Amino acid sequence: MTHIKVVAFDCDGVLFDSKDANTAYYNRILHQFGLPAMTPRQVVYAHMHTADQVMELLFPDKALLKQADTARGEMGYLPFIKYMRIEPYLKTLLKLLRPKFKTAIATNRTNTMPHVLKAHGLENEFDLVVTAMDVRRPKPDPEMLINILTHFHIAPDEVIYVGDSELDEQAAKAAGIPLVAFGNHRLFAEYHIGTFQELGALLLP
């Protein structure tokens, strides 16, 4: 992998185990409206999609969705960041990657991303962060990955994307970028890893 110049990461399920945080967040909103907690299938959907997409799934009635979005805005995500667990060895890996590699994030998160990075002391560890707010079409569309290529003036084979979901697989394939599947052997990827130590071994032999 000597030709790689940029290492890009998804957020949820890669940089962080955020399932508990996301589940608690959406369940709190559902509870406010007397609705049952998310089903396992909805939890999986919430792990991959944008907050707006998740809310549309959980509140199919447009009038109720409008009220729920208001409640969501008033509540905010900040109280739930504490439930996010940073992936072991991540901070060490990020320091080892520089200055040889540039680092980036491509995530379907929206305005919560700056708060997440700051809360975990990662706000200065990435050269570029692309969220769903920065593109017209979130993953699985390749737009945010193409933005990374444009920003760094690189070819698709000069970046790897570390992701864990089908949306990551589809976006990487559409952008022509090699995928490193993190903790998900069901994905079609150039590499499969289970820890960031393994990623370090690939990039820093």
List descriptors.
six-stranded parallel β-sheet; 2 domains; Rossmann fold; 205 residues; 14% strand; alpha/beta
Please explain how this structure is put together.
With 205 residues, the protein is of the alpha/beta class. The chain has 2 domains: 6-17 and 85-203, HAD superfamily/HAD-like (Rossmann fold); 19-82. Helix content is 43%, strand content 14%. It has helices at residues 19-32, 40-48, 51-58, 62-75, 90-97, 113-119, 143-152, 166-175, 196-203; strands at residues 6-9, 16-17, 85-86, 102-106, 128-130, 159-163, 179-182, 191-193. The protein has a 6-stranded parallel sheet, with helices on both faces. The longest helix is centred in the first third of the chain and has 14 residues, at 19-32.
Protein topology:
Layout: E1 6-9, E2 16-17, H1 19-32, H2 40-48, H3 51-58, H4 62-75, E3 85-86, H5 90-97, E4 102-106, H6 113-119, E5 128-130, H7 143-152, E6 159-163, H8 166-175, E7 179-182, E8 191-193, H9 196-203
Parallel strand pairs: 1-4, 1-6, 4-5, 6-7, 7-8
Antiparallel strand pairs: 2-3
